[in-house]
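Section handout, structural biology tutorial.
Before the tutorial, make sure you can parse a SMILES string by hand: atoms, branches in parentheses, ring closures as digits. In the record below the ligand is S-adenosylmethionine, and the chain has 230 residues. In the tutorial you will relate the predicted C-alpha cells back to the input. Do not try to memorize them.
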Amino acid sequence: MKDIKFLHKDNFDYEKYVNMVKEYHKNGKIFNWFDYIYDCVNGDYTKVFWADLEPNPYLVDWLKQNVITKQDKTACVIGCGVGDDAEILSEYGYKVTAFDISQSAIDLCKNRYQNSKVTYLVADLFDYPKDWFENFDVVYECNTIQVLPNEYRKKARVAMSSLIAKDGYILVSCRSREENTMQEVIPLPLSKLEMDEFIYIDGLKEISFEAYDDTQEPPLPHFWGIYKKS
Ligand SMILES: C[S@@+](CC[C@H](N)C(=O)[O-])C[C@H]1O[C@@H](n2cnc3c(N)ncnc32)[C@H](O)[C@@H]1O
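Predicted structure of the complex:
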C-alpha cells in the first residue's frame, strides 16, 4: 500500500480505512491488517489512530475501587495495542502479561516503556500458550472483539473467558450498537446480546454493566462490563 498517511491519527481517513479492512476481509485475511496499522507509523506510537494514549478511565476507576492487597495478582491484557492499559494495571500492582498479534505493536510498547515491568509479547488469542488457560486474576479486553468479523467474535469471547482464573474477572470495554443494527459498520460494535454471552454461554456472573456515550464529538455509544468466574 503506497498511501499510508490516511492511517495516521492526524490524517485519518475513515472511508479509506473501511475499504482497506473490507478488502482484507473479502480475501479471508482477517488478522493480516493489524500489523500494518502499527507498522505504518514508523515507530511513532502517537500516530496510531485508535490509540487514546492514556489508560481507559473506566479501568482506572475500577483499579482505584478494587485495590489489591497481595502482590502476586496476575493480569492479562488482550490485544494490548500501544500499552497504556497494561501499564496502569502494572502500576496498580498486577503482574501483567500483555499481548498482541501484531509484532509492530509489541515493538512500539517495548520502545515506549523501556523500563516496564509488563511482559509484552506477540501472541494470538486463538492460539495462546497453554499455561495461560484459567491463569489470570484479571483479564482486560478493550476493542478487540469489535475488530473481528463473523464467527471470530464468538470464538474470541470464548478464548478471553478461558484465560480467567477461578474467582477472577474480565473487564470489557467496547463500542456498542442497538440489537440488529450496524452489523456491517466498521469497527463492528457489540450489541448487548453479544455482551450477555459472557454470562449465558461462558457461564460468568455479571458484576456490573454500563452503557455510556464517550466524550468525542459526536459522542459514540460504549459498553463497560465486568464479569466474574466462580
Ligand atoms: C482496536 S485495537 C485495540 C488496541 C488496544 N486494546 C486499545 O484499546 O487501544 C485491537 C487490537 O487487537 C489486536 N488483535 C486482533 N486480533 C488479535 C488476536 N487474534 N490475538 C491478539 N491480538 C489481536 C490487534 O492487533 C489490535 O492491536
